[in-house]
Amino acid sequence: MVVGAGIGGLTAAVRLAVGGHRVTVCERAPEVGGKLGLLTRDGFRFDTGPSLVTMPQVFADFFRETGDRLETVLDLQPLDPIAHYRFGDGTTLESCADPFEFRRRVDDAFGGGAGADWAAFWKRAERIWAATYEPFLASALDGPRTLARYATRLRDLAAIAPGRSLRGMATAYLRDPRLRQFVERYATYTGSDPRRAPAALASVPYAELAFGGWYLRGGLRRLADALLARCAEHGVAVRTGTEVTRITADARGVTGVLLADGGRLPADVVVANADATHVYQDLIAVPSAARALRRTTPSLSGFVLLLGVRGRTPGLAHHTVLFPPGELPGSYDAEFDHVFGDPGRPVPDPTLYLSVPDDPAVRPEGHEAWFVLVNAARQGTGRGAVDWRTPGLADRYADLLLQRLAERGYDPGDRLLFREVRTPADLEARTHAVGGAIYGTSSNGARAAFLRPGNRSVVPGLFLVGGSSHPGGGLPLVTLSAQTVAGLVGPA
């Protein structure tokens, strides 16, 4: 039994079916995909979640090991640039997957030996990746005991620089504050604050720039469609519109699930592809796990604008990152003070992330589908939270973001046909992600990135998969999470 049909749940279901298990997936929404959402309007198709595929080898392994190869199922396109960056002083940089070319671009953009600085940082990031991939990303963790065992591997431990933050790592290698700001942005890939996130997260830019950024022709929603088809091929029963309200267990372990319509489905294994806090507080009472989660810092969320735009914008990249103008380059402090403050507050002048695929499948001819994302405090009250349900707040903030886009040279003006707004409250309502925290818990803190809720629960037969559990959020990591869970469950 799999609870939730996000990417982690679907890939886990397929792997378990390949292993001989009879698998049913229950999904409360009318469609599969979880946070990999889709909005269609007036001939436009908007991905409402991830807009970039990284680590394509993870998906290649999955499709090869479960049936037809990736390239026969999905049209994966490499991006160059992966993203176009514009810093506060107007300097621009285009990221790419060729390390030598990227070093040249860094030198051209910043001068002053920035390319050599980047090369030294890149070498350290590569060491961190090598030290962490197998034991921390592609394997199950056993809480603090895993870190204790890892501490005996002194060279690997030295590589990940325990006790140093991502900002500290960037500062140690990179003299140019704009280049430090570039690195610090990657903390948001785990919903974290670069001032508190561990230096080990240098592996995040390494993975993106080493293996490239990719786009799925037709939109990333195609991945969920392909996984649903793969489920059908292997006899997985996928029940949408079916909400699980309780995971049942006895002294020996899980026994099944209860449904909102009063039904019950028996199971000797339950894989929960749901927010870990929701699982341990609402679906099954595990007080020790719930207490541990309350001691963590929840991840940030996102505020999204989906814009239907008439006409074409010359020179617009697939991904554009616009740092606030007039701000001291490299200073992310104001943004993260707002997002993680007590209480959290909407960021008045945030970094703007703009995704505009040049793909006829997602827009009418002669138009553009704009996805605009900013970092945002999660839904709620208190530290790191904003009540996005406050009447008028979402529309006022959407107006402000359109103003900020215009100030930075990306004004749709009278070309704007419509806008759709998605707040952290909307994400919470749609996916049961508590507070709309995209990644469950953040990586804020020296050990936080390595101590996420484990894939194997203390309840026999209960396993967790997805962005709020080990090894973390993002399409490749939740796919690795599913691989780990299938290995823990074993063949039928």
General description of the model:
This is Phytoene desaturase family protein. Belongs to the carotenoid/retinoid oxidoreductase family. Pathway: Carotenoid biosynthesis. Keywords: Carotenoid biosynthesis, Oxidoreductase. The chain is an alpha/beta fold and 492 residues long. Helices cover 35% and strands 19% of the residues. It has a domain of 177 residues: FAD/NAD(P)-binding domain, CATH 3.50.50. The strands form 6 sheets. A 7-stranded mixed beta sheet has the order 7-6-15-16-17-14-20. The radius of gyration is 22 Å and the shape is globular. The protein starts with a strand and ends with a helix.
Q: Spell out the CATH superfamily of the domain at 2-37 and 56-75 and 218-296 and 448-489.
A: FAD/NAD(P)-binding domain
Biggest sheet, spatial arrangement of strands: 7-6-15-16-17-14-20
Assign the CATH architecture of the domain at 2-37 and 56-75 and 218-296 and 448-489: 3-Layer(bba) Sandwich
Return the CATH topology of the domain at 2-37 and 56-75 and 218-296 and 448-489. Answer: FAD/NAD(P)-binding domain
Which percent band covers the strand fraction? 15-25%
CATH classification class of the domain at 2-37 and 56-75 and 218-296 and 448-489: Alpha Beta
Main β-sheet description: 7 strands, mixed
Question: Could you name the ranges where pLDDT drops below 50 across 5 or more consecutive residues?
Answer: none
- What's the assembly state of these chains? single chain
Got a strand count? 21
